[in-house]
Amino acid sequence: MSNTGVVFPTIDLGELSDEILNQNLREAGERLGCFRVINHGVSLSLMSEMKKTVMDLFERPYEVKVRNTDVLPGSGYRFRPSETNPNYEALGLVDLASPQALNTFCDQLDASAEQREIMVKYAEAIHGLAEDLSRRLAESYGLADTTNFFKSWPIQFSINKCHFKPETVGKVGVQAHTDFGFLTILQDDENVGGFEAMDPSSGTFFPLSPLTNSLAINLGDMATIWSNGRLGSVKHRVRCEAKTSQRPLFSNSTLKIMPATSVIFPTIDLGEVSDEILNQKLREASERWGCYRVINHGVSLSLMSDMKKTIMDLFERPYEVKMRNTDVQQWSGYTAQSEINPYNEALGLYDTASPQAVNTFCDQLEASAEQREIMVKYAEAIRGLAKDLLRRLAESYGLADTTNFFKSWPSVFRIHKYHFKAEAVGKPSGVNLHTDWGFLTILQDDENVSGLEAMDPSSGTFFPLPPLANSLAINLGDMATIWSNGRLCNVKHRVQCNEAKTRFSIASFLLGPMDTDLEAPSEFVDAEHPRLYKAISHKGYRSLRMATNLHDGEALKLISYE
Ligand SMILES: O=C(O)CCC(=O)C(=O)O
Ligand SMILES: [Fe+2]
């Protein structure tokens, strides 16, 4: 070996004393950000089966491999040849903790049932190890209470294959980089070296020689951020080794515990054939996030685009015309841009289920006959979808009998035009943090201009819902939380100005019973789930919210039994 001097530590996870083990991990994490672990608890036969599985997956024809598309930028199949590494390819999967994502990955790559099972087991074992290491690191700093901080972080799985050529021996095939997640577990090739990490104190690269049955651990940028600079995000690269002239370097399955910045709100395919699976997905997303996108939603794409053109045109009306769109109830009519609200104007219509109200709205805004027809059709399609989603949610809770409970509820349009200016970038747009006050909102947001952000209720952090053409975003509001006795999440969200462009959105709210009280059906209430909220009509709840000016879901506390 030409580079001698630094030997990266090998840590025996079979060490009996937790204290010593945690200390060893911390020291290696701080000094080098990189180490090997042995006796790691991931079964050796599972590691070897997993290697066989990924080797086989790379043998799939190109057309099959490209089905492994990106979920996050660069997360799917990549074929990035370079001079040293002329056949570099990688397959990938986010989020390994999601059985659904794993299934999609296996489907894309025509994995056999056996391979699927191996992947599931491997994912579970590696995930467990990653969490164990993160917990031990936190404990080594005396942070016993926060040891679960990584619980909901997604895991990116990336499988790389390097085919080095004899003529490139000694050259770097995978350029020096740090991992962008928190912690990476690397099952590198037990026969072929090439992995090198940098000693941060000298800036020199040293090999991490292959070691059978071990796993390599790298700490990434998020670990450095989290530890306020204590833990190293190790720079590493892969070099083409002499051996590779005889045999290709088959390298590594990499797991990353990624930072919460990569939270992805679910996208649910409403074309799913099994009602049971679909209802379950809707329920899970509604409980966990209160927010998701739907595709194949049945609202015709040409109708969506006609509706967008219609509202763009309506916003072009002179101020005096737009002012005719007066309130029917609080905040239901036109709000203009103003000094305190410089970037947002909005038109509104209560109630889209009433042909008369739609007509009045169209009269006020001098809509053409054609625009009127589009509005009517759009309102009908969106209302149908909202009811379908509600029926499915009710069914997912086994409430088949009550699936019509929303039949006579009114629906509201709130149509936004955001005048984002360069000076507003990074600022709130005028639609500040709030929960929706109805039951369910269907949002046709701008397919080109971002801005919508929702809160991950488990961390309290905001994440963007990037635009997705032809999709609709769904939010659950306060009435859904009341009805479900707290099970459904009233998602907190806002719109931020990200770029100096004009953004349009059409929000359709299915509100709730105006004149009768809504309360959780008895199926949601038992000894473990005492009734949380007093029965209240939507009208009553709105008045409460308006009177108290509590728009982020806090008004629910005012009708709470506790
Ligand atoms: O414009 C958007 O994307 C969201 C608007 C919104 O949250 C609302 O109208 O309640
Ligand atoms: Fe909203």
Describe what is shown at a glance.
It comes from Brassica napus. With 562 residues, the protein is α+β, with helices and mostly antiparallel strands.
Q: What form results from the Cα inertia axes? A: elongated
Quaternary status of these chains? Answer: single chain
Beta-strand percent range: 15-25%
Strand numbers in spatial order across the main sheet: 1-2-10-7-12-5-4-3
Small molecules bound in the structure, each named once = 2-oxoglutaric acid, fe (ii) ion
Fraction of residues in helix: 25-40%
Question: Would you tell me the overall average pLDDT?
Answer: 87
* Number of helical stretches of at least 4 residues: 13
Mind telling me the C-alpha Rg? 27 Å
Determine the N-to-C terminus distance: 69 Å
User: Low-confidence parts lasting 5 or more residues at pLDDT below 50?
Assistant: 244-262
**Helix/strand/pairing category:** alpha+beta
Largest sheet: 8 strands, mixed
Total beta strands: 22
